[in-house]
Design goal:
Elements: H1 39-43, E1 51-54, E2 63-67, H2 70-79, E3 86-91, E4 99-102, E5 108-112, H3 116-133, E6 134-144, H4 149-160, E7 165-172, E8 188-195, E9 208-209, H5 213-219, E10 222-225, E11 231-238, E12 240-242, E13 262-264, H6 268-276, E14 280-282, E15 288-293, E16 300-301, E17 305-306, H7 328-337, E18 344-347, H8 354-361, E19 365-370, H9 373-385, H10 403-413, E20 416-420, H11 428-440
Parallel strand pairs: 2-19, 2-20, 3-6, 3-18, 7-17, 18-19
Antiparallel strand pairs: 1-20, 4-5, 6-8, 7-8, 9-16, 10-11, 11-15, 12-13, 14-15
Helix pairs in contact: 2-3, 3-4, 7-8, 9-11
The protein binds S-adenosylmethionine.
Length: about 450
């Protein structure tokens, strides 16, 4: 094992890295950038190139899995052409909870023991490099809980600029917790959103919920056939909006005035056009309403309170078994709005790979970084064996030597290059040995 132990307040659970990071003991750290490491030292932190474990062949810009300390890889990326190239960062770092997280197989996955000034200094180093890596208009989603929420908001205001703050999503992460002795049950976590550069140029589409059968049934109850016989689902919406107007929108249309206190919306000219296209529905008592078709709708707009994307281990549903695995559909919704096909999504605390899974599903390239052996073990199992039901995990064998060939061909077909910051790790077999050693400890 190449674990460096815990000389600098970093992980004390098994991890892979040869990198020694400058001490994180600044108890009085006060969110001033000039109290942190000098920017040049951060940029130049990676002094040697990473070790290549697997190279995706015949691809010019592969996705990358980076096994090691993210400070090293973020610095290496800046030195190697990724500055201003990243469309979106979604990341879910340690929250400062003072816990050690254990996987569903009782393996120690990672330790979240940094706190106070050391925690903030750890974050500010990484956030400054992330800011350099994002393209203009690029989006950062930082997923955290309330432990360090307020400190991280101030820290990101310092690094990105207060005016670059785009808002915060409150997510319901689990069902109600009735076990609290005092106060309220904690069912929420949060995503802070920032852009790089002018706020008005943020490359962020409207965030919309993916369609579900249940939602379609409720929202688009009507249907009709088009001229080619295809069924089109639609809903009906009013053609009058609140507020009395005096102009054309307050006058007669097709022999009717708008209802009391309302005006026509859209205008009578536009309503004529819609009617000629068969897009106005007339009720039996002559009440017009506009048809809105499902196949032309972008989806239900998400608000800053998201209820429907709880984490798998909190719902007893499909989970890979990593203790802090996030809902990859939630991640997909966020990164999808901040990127287009082929863009690069970065997650420097990638854990079991929920961001990488989400990015692949919507044809984005990804760069995932993690130093946890158990994190990579879970991600590779996801790659090789797919998602599994949590209750089946006990039968879900650890990766075996025969899986190496499958893993290699999966890395190839998914166009993923695998790198390490460790000098003692250069082959997939060595990595596999570390996984198996961890599993039997
Ligand atoms: C909250 S977990 C991420 C979980 C992930 N979102 C998922 O869905 O599985 C945080 C991760 O950060 C990793 N980590 C912590 N410090 C790190 C560092 N300095 N460099 C790289 N990874 C680190 C841990 O190993 C852990 O897997």
């Amino acid at each position: 094992m190449t674990s460096v132990g815990n000389p600098h307040g970093l992980a004390d659970t098994p991890h892979i890295s040869s990198v020694n990071e400058p001490n994180l003991v600044n108890e009085k750290f006060n969110l001033e950038i000039n109290e942190s490491m000098h920017l040049d030292d951060l940029i130049n932190f990676a002094e040697t190139p990473p070790t290549l474990i697997h190279e995706a062949t015949a691809v010019s810009n592969p996705s990358m899995c980076c096994v090691g300390n993210n400070l090293y890889f973020l610095s290496w990326m800046i030195q190697n052409g990724y500055k201003n190239q990243i469309a979106c960062v979604y990341t879910d770092p340690p929250f400062g909870t003072a816990q050690t997280f254990v996987s569903s197989e009782s393996v120690s996955s990672y330790s979240d023991k940094l706190n106070g000034g050391a925690y903030l200094e750890f974050q500010i180093r990484r956030m400054r490099l992330i800011h350099l890596l994002l393209r203009e208009g690029g989006i950062l989603y930082l997923h955290i809980d309330e432990t360090m929420l307020f400190q991280l908001k101030l820290l990101l205001d310092t690094v990105f600029g207060k005016s670059r703050y785009l808002g915060m999503i409150t997510r319901r992460k689990c069902s109600s917790k009735n076990s609290v002795a005092k106060g309220v049950g904690d069912v929420a976590d949060y995503v802070l959103m920032y852009t790089k550069g002018d706020r008005s140029k943020a490359k962020l589409e409207r965030i919309v919920y993916p369609w579900t059968e249940e939602y379609i049934k409720k929202e688009f109850p009507k249907s009709e056939n088009d001229s080619e016989g295809n069924v089109r689902k639609f809903k009906l919406v009013p053609v009058a909006a609140s507020g009395k107007r005096n102009g054309k929108t307050g006058g007669l249309w097709r022999g009717n005035f708008p209802p009391d206190g309302k005006h026509w919306n859209p205008t009578p000219e536009k309503l004529d056009l819609l009617d000629s296209q068969g897009r106005i529905h007339w009720s039996s008592n002559g009440n017009p309403r506009k048809k809105v078709y499902l196949d032309e709708s972008v989806g239900k707009r998400a608000t800053n309170i998201v209820m429907d994307f709880r984490d798998a281990f909190n719902q007893n549903s499909i989970s890979c078994g990593y203790p802090t695995e996030k809902n990859s559909d939630f991640v997909k919704m966020l990164i999808g709005a901040a990127s287009e096909e082929g863009d690069i999504i970065l997650d420097p605390f990638s854990g079991s790979g929920s961001t990488m899974v989400a990015a692949s599903e919507i044809e984005r390239k990804f760069i995932g970084i993690d130093f946890g052996i158990d994190a990579w073990r879970h991600y590779f199992r996801r790659l090789v064996k797919g998602e599994v039901l949590q209750k089946q995990l006990k039968d879900f064998a650890f990766l075996e030597p025969k899986d190496i060939a499958i893993l290699e061909s999966t890395l190839e077909s998914e166009k993923i290059t695998l790198l390490s910051d460790s000098k003692n790790l250069s082959t997939l077999v060595e990595l596999l040995e570390q996984f198996n050693q961890l599993a039997t400890e």
